[in-house]
């Protein structure tokens, strides 16, 4: 079974967005792990086997250089496909996504079809 780790950086202490993504992917047959802490999620990504890592990040409040470096380093070492979901469509956020080495991204709002298409594409680009 394909395993997906969803790492959500949610400052409202709610996992609603990540939970909705997990439900869509779970119904489609993926095995999902959802984490609401980037540091813990990256540790899991390094120590357990996942086929895809999905980040749900809020770039408006994510300006912690050390955390961004850790994401980039972890993704480089893992050599796994990754997907970033964000509501921030500003040039700086898109530029940062590419700088982090994230292979695919999706800008919210999006449909279930959009999500499944991008996830499928992540596995095709391996």
Name the features.
alpha/beta; globular; 5 helices; 47% helix; 126 residues; 20% strand; 5 strands; Rossmann fold; five-stranded parallel β-sheet; single chain
Describe the structure.
The structure is a single chain. The chain is an alpha/beta fold and about 130 residues long. The chain has a single domain (about 5-125), classed as 3-Layer(aba) Sandwich (Rossmann fold). It contains 5 helices and 5 strands, in the order βαβαβαβαβα. It has helices at about 15-25, 40-45, 65-80, 90-100, 110-125, and strands spanning about 5-10, 30-35, 50-55, 80-85, 105. Strands 2-1-3-4-5 form a 5-stranded parallel sheet, sandwiched between helices. Strand 4 (about 80-85), helix 4 (about 90-100) and strand 5 form a beta-alpha-beta unit. Helix 2 (about 40-45) runs parallel beside helix 3. The model has no long low-confidence stretch (mean pLDDT about 80). InterPro entries: CheY-like_superfamily, Sig_transdc_resp-reg_receiver.
Q: How do the strands and helices of this protein lay out in sequence?
A:
Elements: E1 3-8, H1 16-27, E2 31-35, H2 38-47, E3 52-56, H3 65-78, E4 82-86, H4 91-100, E5 104-107, H5 112-124
Parallel strand pairs: 1-2, 1-3, 3-4, 4-5
Helix pairs in contact: 2-3
Organism: Floridaenema fluviatile BLCC-F154
Domain Response regulatory: 3-123
Protein name: Two-component system response regulator
């Amino acid at each position: 079974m394909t395993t997906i780790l969803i790492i959500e950086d949610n400052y409202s202490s709610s996992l609603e967005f990540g939970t909705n993504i997990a439900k869509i992917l779970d119904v489609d047959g993926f095995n999902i792990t959802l984490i609401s802490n980037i540091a813990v999620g990256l540790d899991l990504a390094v120590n357990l086997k996942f086929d895809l890592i999905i980040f749900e990040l809020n770039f408006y409040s994510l300006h912690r250089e050390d955390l961004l470096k850790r994401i980039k380093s972890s993704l480089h070492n893992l050599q796994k496909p990754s997907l970033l979901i964000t509501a921030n469509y500003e040039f700086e956020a898109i530029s940062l996504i590419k700088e982090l080495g994230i292979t695919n991204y999706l800008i919210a709002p999006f449909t279930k079809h959009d999500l499944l298409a991008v996830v499928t594409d992540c596995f095709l680009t391996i």
